[in-house]
Amino acid sequence: MAAANHSPSSPYSCAKDSGPVIPTTSLVTFLERVQETAFQTYERSKFDHKDFIDLSLKFDLSTTVKAFDEISKTENGSVSTKDFEEFIGKWFKSAGEDLVYVEPMDFETEPYGFLPKVENPEVRAWALEVHGLWKKLSREVSSSVHDHPELHTLLPLPVPGMIPGSRFREVYYWDSYWVIRGLLASKMHETAKAIVTNLISLLDTYGYVLNGARAYYTNRSQPPLLSAMVYEIYNRTGDVDLVKKALPALLKEYQFWNSEIHTMIIHDAENCNHSLNRYYAMWNKPRPEASAIDKRFASKFLNVNEKQKFYRELASTAESGWDFSTRWMRNPSEFTSLSTTTILPVDLNAFTLRMELDIAFFAKIVGDDAIAEDFLTASHTRKKAFNSVFWNENMGQWVDYWLNYGAEPKEPQTWEAQNQNQNVFASNFVPLWIDLFNSDTPLVEKVTRSLQSSGLLCAAGIATSLTNSGHQCRDFPNGWAPIQHMIVEGLWRSASTEARKVARDIAERWIRANYVAYKKTGTMHEKYNVEKCGEYGAGGIYRPQTGFGWSNGVVLTFLEEFGWPKDQNIDCN
Ligand SMILES: OC[C@H]1O[C@H](O[C@H]2O[C@H](CO)[C@@H](O)[C@H](O)[C@H]2O)[C@H](O)[C@@H](O)[C@@H]1O
User: Would you indicate the residue range of the signal peptide (predicted)?
Assistant: First the structure.
């Protein structure tokens, strides 16, 4: 039976909030106030909370706050739409003005050797359009941010980079991996390296790679894929200097993910202890970028401690990159039952396993055999933990492990079968992406059969979960490019004929769905509806976004690997 069904009635009955909290800036606090006023001023459908936290000041903060106090001096603090709009126009630069468009340094309209396996002219023309989107997503931080950082929530970065698109105006951590994969297919190696330079600069400044390059994202990271980015670039370019630059940063990042807040110990049936990772944001207040909404969600908790605990769960879910999903909810129909910090996520641990393997590989390249040895040992230890803690033999999948409430990081928890979450999520198949697993052919064949019968494989790709929660964007019927990519690449790297057939089939479905949606809407989307080929996804606390960095990256990567024959139809079947 699924662990979710074993939950106590209130997950917060003995909630405590003792974790670290990273201070934020006075500007962010003020913009949250502006966002709250916007929330009260506009209709919900016309309002994106993030637009208000991304505003830049035209004048200094204290003068702006005084002016805002003046217009808010009504009895109930409300502001008319006219006064509010005048105030925003007079005192702020628009959201997005802090980043400026920049021509990518190595963009060519049709680079030499571009997607050689794409023979179909229609598909090739579309692929060139998607390639052309890099020009639209390329940005550098404006000089005003460098000269007057106190006027902006945007953080300065040393070199130009790529943004996901639309409301996601700044650089994001894990999105960058698929952006880099696409850039490599587009032969834009220098732009790919620049993205790594920016992420390393965040790591050097903060000790971890931030969720995104904004002051309000300093309280958390995102799925750690920096080592994978460096690996892919090195694989294409053989750039040893990049590896030398990245290795010390990656060692620092490894410490961050294996520090006390991000690790829990599981004691298995064979008497072994396994240290595994979880998401845990250093924040127990509303997420500034969505604070007006978070406060309303939290209003059901009367106790401050319960509210803080819930806010940490919201921010930790944002750290997971899967914000939001029934995956993190003890009660799938109750959003406030989010319990991300009490879950050992199978995909996060696959990423840290990959980090161990990548670091060992890089250490060998730079000639540090001791580090290479240590990290190889760590990867073998973690592989054992995968077998003991996450693997579910009956399902043929690796599944998330639910921790007991109130557990302290240093206290080992005894593994219990009922704590494995047996609900089916696409993340249960992400370990396939790791070579230690995809090189084991019988294992891959078992997992492939499980994927085929899971219900996740749909007309237009892999669904995120089997639950149609109606409002969570990381659930059925939404499909996300990163998930398609990791599972397809894992299956494709194996030696199993059947797994490779499934990989090609999923990639083709995904390409068709992206193509048809592009033809209908003229744009690439953040997520797609996998039930209906050619439709984009929906749900969540913000409107569906376009652009879109990782979707472009995955389509180009799939087209580079699988190609598209001349006579093969590209429409939805
Ligand atoms: O504002 C809401 C949330 O927006 C981001 O999350 C979503 O977009 C990101 C950029 O494409 C993506 O990395 C993430 O997986 C998406 O869920 C942001 O990362 C969240 O922290 C934020 O709360």
Answer: none
Looking at the DSSP bridge assignments, the partners of residue 165 are 168
Chain-wide mean pLDDT for the chain? 94
Q: Are 175 and 212 in contact (CB under 8 A)?
A: no
Residues of the chain with pLDDT under 50: 1-14
Q: Which amino acid, one-letter code, is at 496?
A: S
Query: Can you tell me the distance from the alpha carbon of 216 to that of 414, in angstroms, rounded to the nearest whole number?
Result: 37
Give the pLDDT score at 6. 35
Q: Is the reported ipTM for this assembly greater than 0.90?
A: yes
Which atom of ligand 1 lies nearest, measured to the CA of 541? 2
- The size of the chain, in residues, is 573
322: its two tokens:
């899967």
* 534 Cα–ligand 1 center, Å: 23
Rounded to an integer, what distance in angstroms lies between the CA atom of residue 131 and that of residue 110? 9
Q: What pLDDT score was predicted for residue 3?
A: 40
Q: Would you give the distance in Å from CA 374 to the centre of its chain?
A: 28
Tokens of 161: 């980079």
Whose tokens are 């909030």? That residue is 17
Q: How far is the CA of 495 from the centre of ligand 1 (A)?
A: 35
Q: Domain boundaries in the chain?
A: 26-93, 100-239, 423-572
Strand partners, 267: 273, 414
pLDDT at 15: 56
Cα(307)–Cα(297) distance, integer angstroms: 10
Closest CA to 554 of 479, 494, 451: 479
For residue 324, the ligand 1 atom closest to its alpha carbon is 17
| Phi and psi based region of residue 166 (left: phi greater than 0; alpha: psi -120 to 50; beta: remaining) | left
| Cα–Cα distance for residue pair 514/264, rounded to 1 Å | 39
Closest CA to 235 of 224, 223, 243: 243
